[in-house]
Amino acid sequence: MRTDFFSAQDFVFPKTANYGPNGKFAFTVDVEEWFQVGAFENCFDRSEWVDLESRVEQQTHVVIDLLAALGIKATFFILGWVAERFPKLISTIGQAGHEIACHGMDHRRLFEMSRSEFASDLKKSKDVLEAAGGKSVFGYRAPSFSLTPDVWWVYEELAQAGFRYSSSLYPVKTDHYGSTEAPRRPFFPTERQDVLEIPLTVCDMPFKRVPASGGGYFRLLPYWLSSLMIGTGRSQSDSPAIFYMHPWEMDTEQPFVAHAPLLSRFRHYTGQKTLPEKLGRLSQAFAWGPIEEVFGSVIPAGGKV
């Protein structure tokens, strides 16, 4: 990855004064099967997916019910692969008042595709989601936060396909994704300003910058520390925090992948039993809403600022 890319760019940051109705943060859910996660990408060949136990439908219904009980509306970034197989699930998500957004077709990282392959992947996933959900899809999240300077043309393809925002950059460096040089506030990555990038939340601690947007870190860390990082990250960036989770993260009965690396197993399975209780506490600590609501005043309307 080019390390000098972000420092050389003159990004345009939308004003923060109009962010977030009533101080809400954005709650998001990445909908994918348990076997499609990055931790298991070397454990199963894609050709094996059709033979593995599908649990995404029941897992997502659990999330929908929990969010209803907590009074939270969220943005669901959904794989086209899931929408093809469970179209009623997509309509159920929309009917529950949640925003339907795109997570690509089958969880291929962006740098694994050519530009033409990405354009095809984007169109197919958007079409199947809109057909299943019965409404236009304007939001996008790259699988495994794999949007990097090396594939910056992705934003041009997103605009061409009718997307208005992306939430695909993590301004922190981990072993799987991210860059500490990336902006922390929403910004327009191209001169046309037709697609807004809404980065994930990070927190600058005394020792280093750490992810603060949920995911596996929320399951692994003590609740008090996670909530502290979310609130601190919001203050440091001067924009609403972003939280994300996956439906498989609360499913303690999903298959156990014994041949996965030890670290992958630890990341994937630890903290699943306590996640619902943690989410309940999180719902009381902060107000939450979908991205289209929280950032609605700065997301381009119909491709125009």
What is the CATH C-level name? Alpha Beta
Q: CATH H-level name... which superfamily? A: Glycoside hydrolase/deacetylase
Number of domains: 1
Instruction: Give helix % range.
Output: 25-40%
How are the secondary structure elements laid out?
Blueprint: E1 25-31, H1 56-70, E2 75-78, H2 80-85, H3 87-95, E3 99-102, H4 115-133, E4 139-140, H5 154-160, E5 165-166, E6 196-197, E7 202-204, E8 209-211, H6 216-220, H7 223-237, E9 242-245, H8 262-269, H9 275-285, E10 288-289, H10 291-294
Parallel strand pairs: 1-2, 1-9, 1-10, 2-3, 4-5, 5-6
Antiparallel strand pairs: 7-8
Helix pairs in contact: 3-4
Note down, in words, how this protein is organized.
The chain has a single domain, classed as Glycoside hydrolase/deacetylase (TIM Barrel, Alpha-Beta Barrel). Helices cover 32% and strands 11% of the residues. The protein has helices spanning 56-70, 80-85, 87-95, 115-133, 154-160, 216-220, 223-237, 262-269, 275-285, 291-294; strands spanning 25-31, 75-78, 99-102, 139-140, 165-166, 196-197, 202-204, 209-211, 242-245, 288-289. The strands form three sheets. Strands 1, 2, 3, 9 and 10 form a five-stranded parallel sheet that branches. Strands 4-5-6 form a three-stranded parallel sheet, with no helix packed on it. Helix 3 packs across helix 4 (115-133). The mean pLDDT is 92.
What's this entry about, in short?
The chain has 305 residues and is of the alpha/beta class. Helices cover 32% and strands 11% of the residues.
